[in-house]
Amino acid sequence: MCRVGRSIPYWSTLTTRLVLERMDTRQRHNRWVTSVSFSPDGRMLASGSEDGTIELWSVSDGKLEWMDTLWRHNRWATSVSFSPDGSTLASGITDGTVLLWNVENGLSMHHLGSHTDGVRSVSFSPDGRMLASGSEDGTIKLWCVPGRTLMRTLSGHTSWVMSVSFSPDGRLLASGGKDRTVRLWQLG
User: Would you say domain 30-186 falls under CATH 2.60.120.10?
Assistant: First the structure.
């Protein structure tokens, strides 16, 4: 039997069943929670919601404690993702906006730009220098985080891009879309 830690979901190799233990539940959002992301050190959790808020939570010994509301708006926060060093939180919004937040002080640092339709997924590269955003407009945008500039727009999906993720070495980007395709992009 494999066990990763106290009260963490794990697979039992003897029974091939997923064993779940619920640790804590908190409710601050008043609509669907659309995205959650752990900070790299596991001490914080960010949640984005259809209610137009992004919440920061402290995670300690399996307990959630509310820390701060980063954003209140009339648009959904559809995706949240921590940078690899944990200092920045990226968010994708249904109005097409991509925002970067300073986690330490809770302030919006940068508005990277916009897609022509809602952003469904954001993901940092392993080195934190690039951010990918996938949108309902069918495109993926690659942003230079230090320069806060658009590097490239990737096209090919015929419908919404629902998910983006970098490979561990940062050389590939995977995307999944409402067009039922998974695509691999070589980032050179």
Answer: no
